[in-house]
């Protein structure tokens, strides 16, 4: 099985040129000497969950965040890491492939070798399976040569998604000990990074010296929080999909007879759909988060689309493009409830043939109403994280069919006078996952790989590598690390009036922020998108010339840089301290006391009110 | 409906840069003076059909081919076209959109305006509908500004495919007369160019002064003959699809659990599938032409794929990519026969619900064997050219299902010992049709637009614009024109032992040549493609840097340049004439006679034997 991993292969002209591209490093990581500055202890964003998290992660919760600075940075407390003994580092691809993953390996390899030529980077073959079975491949220049800046995870492969059970966790520890690893780097999304945090905690508890480090790599773009602005692969996926969506828009406008319903891969959150809509301006996009917030039923959504088709027909437009995130089906309340019942019956071991007869009356009624193809898909076994098999459920076909039925009814009734409604359905997912990564993803992943090395050199455990201020050019990027446990939240479900169930702490996927700037931008334009066909074609992903350096719109409009601001705050506090030293004038001291008193009062009030809010 | 045509629109950074790209002209078209040299009268490639064609096209068959040469070309008979009165030219998009179509309009516009600023180019809105209804838009610099080097046909739109009935032909003539057009340029594939030839003939017969000119533009790449090396759009479609196929290959190799079955748009011939296979090296491609030549049944094909899956599983490979041209279904003998019966019943007005009960016993048995989804698709009304609705028939799903059933059987029986077979199906068509055209398609279309002008200036009617020697750089391209009727063939069907039915002369789609070099290249590599996963990713379509100037592999390996050779032959004959002039030595004359006698004998024998062959 592993005989083909890491072998050199025939590359096309474009691929060859890509292997020659050398991503830039931000100033803080240039040269062989890097300083690390520790900030305050990181706390969970959800204060209400902090206790549960700190209880579950006694060794790794509450560690400080870290900033990596250049050697010459004028920061008194920053520590220069001067010892670089030969190390052994393992790296593993977990979860679904995301474009750019190979560059994390490359970046880490370069950083390791730059600091000590005797260090070794060991890749696990076939993902977590390889980790448990100790199937390895030593990463060398030769292995890397045809995988630099290339898509897929085929240099090392990936299989299973999780390292979760006690047996798996112990297996991973045994491998790390047997291979004498100084660090284990886990490349993946929310699930894999939760696993990384758990491994780190278990290793610390068991005094296993291997440090565990997570890297945010997932095409879904749903690993997003105060420390992580975006994930590796998201930009590429959105660019490849936007190109195709735009082509469909041009096609729809040229042929003037079809509605294209396009479902987009991206798991439960709608980040991919939002970004693609901002890139290509389709007529409609139905975000799962909007549907969930407004509790829209499948009939509400159908009606919305039908009204849009009708409004367009009145302007003599009988074509259009509608985007649907694959997670939509789980955001529609009644379909979600139906899926929950089905998954519950799966859990009880009820066979697929018998599930429909054991549904509750209302669920059964809904189930029977749905077309046969979708019934079959809803009955599929849930994924390992208990979510539905989103890539297999053709929500776009369901909606197209419901819209067609309704439009035919309106046509017959005479309330709709346009042309017969014609839909063609598509699912865009797999065709983007293996794409050549964009320059942004190449750069971001390569820098993250370097950061992993410095996390290990600083002796940190249970951290995720972070690069922030990403919307600025690479020379303004900030590199750091944050404890994964501080990115965790705890889910609560009410079960009856006084019973609340508490979930395990985990890095949960972030939904699209309906108060965020990216969503606001979409809302501002939605009516012109709907009626005016202001389609925009970002074009195929370019590696040279204009457009090659573009970044996700949703990244650029958001006002982020949390890590930068945390640092800035620290600087202000230091400045106050240095001005108000014993011996300063009474006036200065009084002014400082009065203003700091008002600042702390304001912040206390703000913190207590936000703690009272329930978590989403 | 037409209010939005030709309006300026918001362009992305890549689109904007594309509007600034200025295609190069070959030397023969540079400057304002062009010479035209006439070759011999063009004859139909199928000598047996020549009589029928010449009978159907008395005014336009047998015209000479034309070469356009630079002013300074040393060709005694070439005529300089020196008069360039103000002209009025109409242009219309017919048939399905193909990337690059807009550049034909732009090239023609530039040529027209370069020769006389008072000339006008008039675009018909909404395709043939607009032609008949005289809905027009005058092409101006402003109209063109945001459509240069852009995909789609949305500058003018397109609707119906054909101009075929007497009413339509007369309507088109009335429009041309009312608008006082000196020429009508028809942009399209085999069907539209057949229509163009018919219009030209009718116009000549009716002494309508409008010259009709065809341009070979179709994504299918199936308008191919001795005069036409490839069509505008084919390169782009293959590049966009190959990128996606390659991404799927990388994805399959990374995940190691799926077989991707990918159906490709391209109508009945398999040119797109062949080119994409040469670009991206998938594990298998099933060409319709191979299936037809070997008379493979659906079960033969299923078995072939199953054996391949099994051979791969023995090498521990449980993933793969299989390409299927959309035309495959019509190449499988029993499915074709079934479709013919169904279309026959449609023709008799039998309703869809009643068709299955009126099938012959064997057709009915096959029909009942097929899964319900495909039955429904086979029952769809045929297209206007009597072929099945190929884009709607999910042959890839049918094959995936049959393969799954067979692999499960083998697994149960113990003859197959690999992992459970998992297929995911895709149809790649619409998402490529609206793509930004490749540099090659931009250049080719733009030059064809210029050639159209010179055809009109030379007063030619019923010609197709040709550009040959395309595999060489633009400065080696040859420009010319050939009568469309000489590209026609006549189909014959035997109906019983002595009755043969003869079709109307038409430009028929060219199949993949199973004796050609492109197919040979595929065959040479097919076993390594199948087993060794030597996937190759041509990458997303690039407009700058390496790869931007690449051309279709199938174009480059074929040893074409028919027009160039015809010219070369003419030069040899002239040379002989100039050497063997009255007054030359007896020896020279004798040598010339003896060698020409043997040449003519050889050619006579070759011609008579090829005339005896039946047409494909």
UniProtKB/TrEMBL annotation, chains A, B:
Every Phosphofructokinase domain range: 88-453
Pathway the protein contributes to: Carbohydrate degradation; glycolysis; D-glyceraldehyde 3-phosphate and glycerone phosphate from D-glucose: step 3/4
Coiled-coil residue spans: none
Any GO BP annotation: photosynthesis
Localization per record: Cytoplasm
GO CC annotation: cytosol
Molecular-function GO terms, alphabetical: 6-phosphofructokinase activity; ATP binding; diphosphate-fructose-6-phosphate 1-phosphotransferase activity; metal ion binding
Protein's UniProt keywords contain Nucleotidyltransferase: no
InterPro entries noted in UniProt: PfpB_PPi_PFK (IPR011183), Phosphofructokinase_dom (IPR000023), PKF_sf (IPR035966)
UniProtKB keywords: Allosteric enzyme, Cytoplasm, Glycolysis, Kinase, Magnesium, Metal-binding, Transferase
UniProt note on regulation of activity: Allosterically activated by fructose 2,6-bisphosphate.
Similarity section: Belongs to the phosphofructokinase type A (PFKA) family. PPi-dependent PFK group II subfamily. Clade 'Long' sub-subfamily.
Its biological purpose: Regulatory subunit of pyrophosphate--fructose 6-phosphate 1-phosphotransferase.
NCBIfam families associated with the record: PFKA_PPi, PRK07085.1
Subunit field text: Tetramer of two alpha (regulatory) and two beta (catalytic) chains.
Protein's UniProt name: Pyrophosphate--fructose 6-phosphate 1-phosphotransferase subunit alpha
Organism: Eragrostis curvula (weeping love grass)
Gene, per the UniProt record: PFP-ALPHA
């Amino acid at each position: 099985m592993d005989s083909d991993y890491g072998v050199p292969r025939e590359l096309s002209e474009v691929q060859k040129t890509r292997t020659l591209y050398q991503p830039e490093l931000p100033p803080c990581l240039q040269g062989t000497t890097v300083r690390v500055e520790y900030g305050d202890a990181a706390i969970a964003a959800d204060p209400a969950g902090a206790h549960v998290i700190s209880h579950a992660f006694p060794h790794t919760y509450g560690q400080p965040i870290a900033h990596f600075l250049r050697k010459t940075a004028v920061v008194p407390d920053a520590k220069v890491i001067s010892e670089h003994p030969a190390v052994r580092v393992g790296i593993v691809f977990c979860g679904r492939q995301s474009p750019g993953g190979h560059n994390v390996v490359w970046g880490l390899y370069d950083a390791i070798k730059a600091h000590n030529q005797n260090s070794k980077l060991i890749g696990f073959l076939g993902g977590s399976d390889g980790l448990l079975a100790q199937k390895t491949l030593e990463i060398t220049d030769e292995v890397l040569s045809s995988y630099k800046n290339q898509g897929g995870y085929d240099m090392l492969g990936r299989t299973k998604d999780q390292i979760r059970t006690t047996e798996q966790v112990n297996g991973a520890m045994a491998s790390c000990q047997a291979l004498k690893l100084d660090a284990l780097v886990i490349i993946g999304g929310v699930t894999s990074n939760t696993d990384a945090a758990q491994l780190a905690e278990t290793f610390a508890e068991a005094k296993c010296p291997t440090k565990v480090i997570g890297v945010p790599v997932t095409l879904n773009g749903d690993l997003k929080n105060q420390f992580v602005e975006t994930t590796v692969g998201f930009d590429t996926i959105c660019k490849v999909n936007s190109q195709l969506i735009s082509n469909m828009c041009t096609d729809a406008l040229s042929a003037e007879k079809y509605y294209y319903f396009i479902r987009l891969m991206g798991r439960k959150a709608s980040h991919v759909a939002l970004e693609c809509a901002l890139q290509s301006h389709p007529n409609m996009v139905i975000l799962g988060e909007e549907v969930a917030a407004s509790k829209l039923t499948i009939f509400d959504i159908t009606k919305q689309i039908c009204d849009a088709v009708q409004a367009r027909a009145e302007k003599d437009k009988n074509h259009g493009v509608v985007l649907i995130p694959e997670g939509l089906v789980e955001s529609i309340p009644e379909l979600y409830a139906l899926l929950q019942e089905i998954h519950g019956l799966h859990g009880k071991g009820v066979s697929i043939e018998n599930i429909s007869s054991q549904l509750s009356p209302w669920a059964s009624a809904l189930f029977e109403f749905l077309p046969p193809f979708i019934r079959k898909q809803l009955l599929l076994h849930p994924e390992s994280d208990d979510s539905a098999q989103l890539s297999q459920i053709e929500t776009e076909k369901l909606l197209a069919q419901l819209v067609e039925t309704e439009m035919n009814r309106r046509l017959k009734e005479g309330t709709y006078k346009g042309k017969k409604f014609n839909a063609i359905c598509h699912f865009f997912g797999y065709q983007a996952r293996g794409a050549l990564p964009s320059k942004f993803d190449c750069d971001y992943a390569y820098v993250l790989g370097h950061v992993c090395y410095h996390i290990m050199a600083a002796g940190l455990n249970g951290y995720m590598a972070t690069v922030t201020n990403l919307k600025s050019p690479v020379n303004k990027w900030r590199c750091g690390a944050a404890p994964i446990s501080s990115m965790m939240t705890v889910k609560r479900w009410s079960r009856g009036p006084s019973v609340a169930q508490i979930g395990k702490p985990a890095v949960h996927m972030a939904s699209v922020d309906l108060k965020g700037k990216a969503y606001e931008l979409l809302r501002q334009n939605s009516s012109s998108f709907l009626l005016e066909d202001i389609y925009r074609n970002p074009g195929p992903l370019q590696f040279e010339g204009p457009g090659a350096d573009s970044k996700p719109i949703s990244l650029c409009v958001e006002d982020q840089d949390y890590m930068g601001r945390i640092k800035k705050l620290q600087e202000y506090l230091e400045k106050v301290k240095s001005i108000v030293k014993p011996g300063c004038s009474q006036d200065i001291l009084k002014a400082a006391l009065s203003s700091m008193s008002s600042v702390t009062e304001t912040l206390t009030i703000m913190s207590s009110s936000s703690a009272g809010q329930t978590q989403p």
